[in-house]
Amino acid sequence: MKNILKNKKIALCVCGSISAYKSVDLASKWVQQGADVKVLMTKSAQKFVGKATFEGITHNKVVDDLWNNESDLNIDHLDIAKNSDLLIVSPITANMISKIAHGVSDDIISTTLLATEKPIIIAPAMDGNMYDHFAVKKNIELLKKNGVIVLEPESGYLASGLTGKGRLRNQEEITAEVERVLSIADDLKGKNILISAGGTREPIDSVRFIGNRSSGKMGHSLAEICSQRGANVTLVTTSNLFVPNGIKKISVSTAEEMKVEIINLIDSMDCIIMAAAVADFKPEIFNEGKVKKDGIEKMELNLVKNDDILNLIKDSKCIKIGFAAETSNHDEFGVNKLNSKDLDMIVINDVSNSQIGFESDYNQVKIITKKGDIFKSDIENKKIIASNIIDKLKTIIN
User: What predicted TM-score, i.e. pTM, was given to this entire model?
Assistant: First the structure.
């Protein structure tokens, strides 16, 4: 297995959180894999972990001051900002999130992040209800929109004794994301890729609709990965998830709206990835206004079939990737869909498993190509799964 971290330059920024001690283990593992790790620390972080610990592990001086410089440039933060392959802030506090969201640069970490054009990953860790506070959520959304990769914290027991969302993401997942970002190649540059995401909503009246549990996370992750790899991405989505700059987002609600957008765009695309959960049926009649329940004991709906979008674009010359969200006979139904819709690749996942699927951040898929190649993933974060899917796409796209 290829060692992605070997000879990579990683800037590990550590903020003042009780989970700062976990970054020592990260630094140690990355160094053992051959990475050149330079640690930047705030003054608060040093209240939790000493500089000597990181210096002993990384064999590099810890950078903690804008004026006490070691580099040839005599400006350490600019040297790190320019020459690192990746910068990661783990843990990052609510205070530092606010600083980098609003361009404040009053310490070594915020100044370095402001000066870099390299990929930035942040792994928040904080106590109580802080992560769910409206100001923190707004700042996180702003960072995501501008391309910062956010490793959402886990829910669980916190240092204060409270239980909530704020635990630092586990080290294995942090390392996996670092490896994923470092392995990104500009291998889709110039390719036009159309991606659908989310679950369509088919209206009954002005208030009610028929829908499904799809969150749109898989499709949005695919769009983000394709964009990072140089593609021109158009995302047709029902989801309100934030979309990074550089991705063209088209918001829709119903299957009909999604169909119209895809039909209009398909001829200019090199590839379409149909990750959306498009409703198979819709109410035959749409009732204007709200249907009142008074006097109604039983309400009957007549449903009619929606057009099958993949069937409508069956003759398109672009590469077509479909998804099969199944609860049983996964391979059989998936392969049938691959063949009947003349797809180049099918991604099959088991939505009956509560650990993965629609609303989860995790998934496990089986990928089958028209040529018969088969790949099965482990249970992974959806961004990792998205990278696996795009890796397989790269083997068939011209």
Answer: 0.76
